[in-house]
Design goal:
mainly alpha; 241 residues; 10 helices
Length: 241
Amino acid sequence: MFNKRQYNILSERYFECLLGDFGAFLWMLGQAPLIALVIILRWKSWQATESLYFVMSLSCVWFGCINACREIAKEKTIYKRERLFGLSINAYLASKIKILCIIGLIEIGIFYLLLKHYLHLDLQSFLAFVTLFGLYFSGLCLGLMLSRWCGTVAKAVVSVPIAIIPQIVFSKFVLPENSLKGIAIKIEKLMVVKWGFEALNNCKKAEVVFKDYSINMLYLMGLAILFIFITLIHLWMVDDD
C-alpha cells in the first residue's frame, strides 16, 4: 500500500540530503547548461537537423540516468534497516522519483531554453519540452533500475555508459534502419532514445504529426513504467537478501 505520510517525510528527507551535498547538487544542475553549450558550439551556424534532435534526446536520457543511478544503491543499508520498521516500498520509490523529477524540470528547462535561444530548433516549444522531459523521466527510471540491480554506487555509475551506448549503436545514425535484422530489431524497440527522438521529429513547427507523436510518447512512457516495475520487484526482493 502507498503511505502518503511516509512519502512526504521521505521526499523532504531526500531533498535535504541533496542540499546537504550542495556541490554535488549544483553539479547535477550544471550539467545541463554545459552540455547545451557544447551543442550550441557545434550547431550554432546550422539549421536544425535530425542529428541535432538525436543528440538532444540522448542528452536528456543521460541527465535522468546519471542523476538517478546512485540514489538507491547508496542507501542500501539504510533501506534494509528501515524495511524492518515498516518502510513503504512504494512511498520510498515515489519520493525518489518526485524529487528527481523536480530537478529534471529545472534541468530540462535550462537545457531547452538555451538551445531555443541560440539555435534554430524549428520545434513546437510545448511539445518539444514535454518530449525532452519524457526522455529525462525515462532515463531517470532506467537509472533507478540500474541503481537497485547493480547494488553498489560504483557498479551503478559504471553501468550508465553501458546502458547509454546501445542507444547510439541501435540508431540509424550508426547503421541504416533497414540493416537491423532479427534480434537487433527487438533490441532497438527497447531503446528509449529511439522513441523520444521519433517524437521530437514529430514536433516540427511546419509538420506536427499528433498521431505519430502520441504513439511514440506512449512507447516512451511504457518503457519508463517497465523500468519502475522492475525496480519495484527488486526492491521487494531485498527482504530476502
